[in-house]
Design goal:
The chain is α/β, with parallel strands linked by helices and 299 residues long. It has helices at 2-21, 40-48, 59-74, 95-98, 131-135, 147-160, 173-176, 214-223, 243-259, 274-279, 289-292; strands at residues 30-34, 53-56, 119-122, 140-144, 164-169, 198-199, 205-206, 227-233, 265-267, 284-287. Strand 1 (30-34), helix 2 (40-48) and strand 2 (53-56) form a beta-alpha-beta unit. Belongs to the pyridoxal phosphate-binding protein YggS/PROSC family.
Amino acid sequence: MEGLRSRLTVVRDRLVTAARTAERDPDALTLIAVSKTWPFEDVVALCSLGVRHFAENREQEAGPKAAAVHAALAGAGVPAPGDQIRRPGLPDGTPGAWFPSRADGPATLGSPGVLDVPVWHYVGQLQRNKARAVTGWAHYVQSVDRARLVETLSRAATERGYITAVCIQVNLDQEASPGVRPGPGVQKSLPGGENAPVAGAGGAARGGALPRDVPALAELVARAEGLVLAGVMAVAPRGVPPRPAFARLREVSERLRSDFPAATMVSAGMSSDLEDAVAEGATHLRIGTALFGERHGVP
């Protein structure tokens, strides 16, 4: 607990410093604790320290973990997933009206020991056959990069009677390394295709729609029942300075907001590059190692 508390303090200080350096309001930043591979007890501990947002990238781990976290918090009066957040008919129909937007707010709901509602993000590459399971616990799916996944998520959310917030994942790797092309059997991610991730710098398979394809994909999300368009997400390319990629993501986000003003979320930046992400307008920072420590032997 003390280790988590200490690391959380350091991360929050970094976020405040980065925001002030960029002449931004620190309160406009949301910390997302990337809890993949870590036990549910760590999530509960961070909840007690005021963290609200958590990210997972494997449904088979995340579903049971989310259930365990909510079971552990049930005695403190925390509602189960879906009870207050994803039901339709909530004010204004925009993400900001009914999704918690800050990770470092008050840890209580008015009395000691009553923790705030954990908000779950799915950040991994999502197979369509896992979509229904993911909508059962994730409030946000940040890794939407193809049309058929939009259709599947829409159907799954609608069947459950939930609303799921969606970020379009933007692939910036090819722009950073224009000589890299998808390898054998790997297709580019274009709306309308059931595509594998695009090969990025260093040849590793990574997901995301190309920037030119984001507007068309956004239109599909905006029209999809059970989904709401929250914004964009990206991972900085490997092996090159991250700032230019985050600047490109800012441009993609600005263009998206010109058509969809409510899609203000920019999920970018991790433990090693959060300062660059904040400088280029990130609103949500996905922090794992700096909070939990090094993960050993896990991809």
